[in-house]
Amino acid sequence: MARFPFRRAVRLLAGSAVLGLLSAQAFADPILIKFSHITADSTPKGQGALMFEKLVEERLPGKVEVQVYANSSLYGDGKEMEALLLNEVQMLAPAPSKLEQYTKQLQLFDMMFLFDDMAAAQRFQQSDKGRAMLRSMEDKGITGLAYWLNGMRQFTANKPLREPFDARGLKFRVQPSDLQAEQYSALRAVPRKMSFAEIYQGLQTGVVNAQDNPWSNIYTQKYFEVQKYMTESDHAIGNYVLITNTRFWRSLPDDIRTELEAIVEEVTAEVNRQAAALNEKAKQDIIATGKSELITLTPEQRAAWREAVKPAWKKFEADIGPDLIQAAQAANQR
Predict the structure, then answer these.
(1) Fewer Cβ atoms within 10 A, N terminus or C terminus of the chain?
(2) For the domain bounded by 29-330, which CATH number is listed?
């Protein structure tokens, strides 16, 4: 029987181990990122999610797979945060109001008439203080990746809204935000917390008779069918916070996380660039239906609304941080 050299046997075994490892890597399942959100694909957030999916597929083929679930098809308002913390989804883009139990700082974006326009809000978000707010939830297991703009929020109601006293007695749908509710109470309105998916039915049945959203949501959710008056108030920034599960994000290989961060930055720039145009188109599409009357607030009327809600700001100033509020107001100065 021929002798089989020991060293050759070791080399063959080592080679087989390497081939086995390479083969296992080649056939390993890609990292899965489930991206769940509650709006339509045609909204700025919907477009951003689809763009993220497309770029990941192009740049990390076989390594990362993104699955987008729009229109609350996977999780709705009430369940998505729990799902993220359990790592059942890996990416969300909720409104800041959904995050107030994890950080009080983000309540700043619920302050009505704080920002003069979308450009001012964006200047603040890109500032050092604005970026630092994204990291304010990491001790709770949530990492903020970016802010996605969705246009300014507008009032809709079944009566004209021009002056603050016009809101008296109206049942306003509000997000799960104590600050939002307090501001509507300051207007002598009746705030009612309600999930996004329930708004249309709530308006249709009279459970609520007023609400606020960016034009893109008002159009895609067809609120103009059940609301006669649309007030172009630009009273708050309609933005989202792109977030992920902290443990999941830190567990990613460095090269993959770096590439995902680059993709997020690219998508964010495009979402924010498109937000104004998408909302303007949605507004014109609403006007074209002829079903609603459009009211535009004058600068003097906006100032009156701001003064009316300011007492509510004071109650939340300490939690948010006076320095952050001052920085946001400074962003109004071009």
Answers:
(1) N
(2) 3.40.190.170
